[in-house]
C-alpha cells in the first residue's frame, strides 16, 4: 500500500523521468498526474568512518581574475555521525584576509559575506588553532576515532588550504590530508557526474537550503547530499589525499 506521506502529485513528469532514470523514484501514472514514490533503498550501510566532517571554504575572489594569494574568509565544518548521518556539532568562523583585506563587490555578491563580517575576525593561523581545539573537544583526535573530511570537489583541501598555508608558512594538520569528494561519491552511486553541488540535489529528492556560496549553508546542503547518498546504500571511501612538506603530526 502506498502511504500518503511518501506520495507527491505532480503535473509535470519531465523531472520525474530524469530522476527515474537514476533509479531514485518509482512512477505510477494516473490521468494528468504522476505519482512519485521514494524508492525503498533507505538502508544505510555500515560505514568505515565514525564521523564525516563536512567542510566548505569561501575565499577572496574577483572577476575576471581571482586575487593572489586567495585567502579563506569563511571556514565552516559540520560533524556528521557516521551511523545516523545527523549533524552533531558545528564549527563556524569568518576569517580576516591579510593581503587583500578589502573584499571585492564581486566576492560579497557571490558569497554574501560583507566587509564587517571579516573585519576584526581571527586570521587563518588562529582559526586553524580553533579548528584543532574543536576537533579535540569533539573527540575527533582520540586514537581509534575514525573521521574524514567531506568536500564538494577537490579544491578546498587539494588547492585552497595548501596554497594559503604555503604562502604564509603555516603547518597543515595531518587530518586535512585526506577527504571524500561528494561529487565522486554521488557519481559512484548514480552513474552521473555532477558539475557542482546544485545538480546533485534534485536527483536525490532534496531542496536547496539557504544561500548558495555561503560556506555554512553549502555545508548543510552537502551534509544532506551525503545522507541521501548513504541512504542509497553507498559505503564512502576516501577519494583524495595530499602530502604536504610542512604538516603537523598528531604525535608531535
Ligand atoms: P563555493 O564553495 O562553490 O561557494 O566556492 C568557494 C570559493 O570559490 C568562493 O568563495 C570563491 O572564492 C570561489 N568561487 C566560486 N565560484 C566562483 C566564481 N564564479 N568566480 C570566482 N570565484 C568563485
Ligand atoms: Mg565549495
Ligand atoms: Mg561554498
From TrEMBL:
InterPro entries found in the cross-reference section: 3-5_Exoribonuclease, ERI-1_3'hExo-like, Ribonucl_H, RNaseH-like_sf, RNaseH_sf
Keyword flag Nuclease: yes
Signal peptide feature range: none
GO MF annotation, one: 3'-5'-RNA exonuclease activity
UniProt-listed Pfam families: RNase_T
Keywords of the record: Exonuclease, Hydrolase, Nuclease
Highest taxon of the lineage: Eukaryota
Transmembrane segments: none
Domain spans labelled Exonuclease: 51-235
Protein name: Exonuclease domain-containing protein
Species annotation: Owenia fusiformis (Polychaete worm)
Amino acid at each position: 500500500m502506498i502511504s500518503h506521506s511518501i506520495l507527491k502529485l505532480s503535473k509535470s513528469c519531465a523531472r520525474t523521468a530524469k530522476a527515474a532514470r537514476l533509479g531514485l523514484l518509482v512512477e505510477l501514472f494516473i490521468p494528468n498526474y504522476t505519482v512519485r514514490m521514494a524508492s525503498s533503498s533507505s538502508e544505510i550501510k555500515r560505514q568505515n568512518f565514525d564521523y564525516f566532517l563536512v567542510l566548505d571554504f569561501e575565499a577572496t575572489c574577483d572577476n575576471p581574475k581571482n586575487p593572489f594569494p586567495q585567502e579563506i574568509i569563511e571556514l565552516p565544518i559540520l560533524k556528521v555521525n557516521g551511523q545516523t548521518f545527523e549533524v552533531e556539532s558545528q564549527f563556524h568562523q569568518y576569517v580576516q584576509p591579510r593581503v587583500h583585506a578589502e573584499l571585492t563587490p564581486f566576492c560579497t555578491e557571490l558569497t554574501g559575506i560583507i566587509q564587517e563580517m571579516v573585519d576584526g575576525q581571527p586570521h587563518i593561523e588562529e582559526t586553524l588553532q580553533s579548528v584543532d581545539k574543536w576537533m579535540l573537544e569533539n573527540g575527533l583526535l582520540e586514537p581509534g576515532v575514525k573521521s574524514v573530511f567531506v568536500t564538494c570537489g577537490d579544491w578546498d583541501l587539494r588547492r585552497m588550504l595548501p596554497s594559503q598555508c604555503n604562502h604564509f608558512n603555516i603547518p597543515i594538520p595531518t587530518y586535512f590530508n585526506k577527504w571524500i569528494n561528494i561529487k565522486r561519491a554521488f557519481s559512484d552511486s548514480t552513474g552521473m557526474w555532477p558539475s557542482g553541488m546544485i545538480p546533485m540535489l534534485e536527483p536525490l529528492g532534496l531542496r536547496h537550503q539557504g544561500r548558495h556560496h555561503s560556506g555554512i549553508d553549502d555545508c548543510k546542503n552537502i551534509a544532506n547530499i551525503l545522507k541521501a547518498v548513504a541512504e542509497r546504500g553507498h559505503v564512502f571511501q576516501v577519494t583524495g589525499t595530499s602530502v604536504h612538506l610542512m604538516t603537523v603530526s598528531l604525535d608531535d
